[in-house]
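Ticket closed. Logging final result for Plasmid-related protein.
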Amino acid sequence: MKDAAIRIRVERELREAFAEACQSENRQASDVLREFMRTFADQHQDGRQASLFATPPLKQGRRRNNA
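Final structure:
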């Protein structure tokens, strides 16, 4: 049962890119957002850090000796 609504502001370009991605996968935007919210909430509830926003570790470059 759906009984709550969320309204958010996003950049127009982000909204358009999201809508195009949903359309290309033949999915409703609301379904994609619900899936994201469930995944995020489940990860938080389980005490795990959400990996949805994880950034890859920085690569170690070669060091030069300035001698």
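The helical segments are 12-24, 29-45. No further action required.
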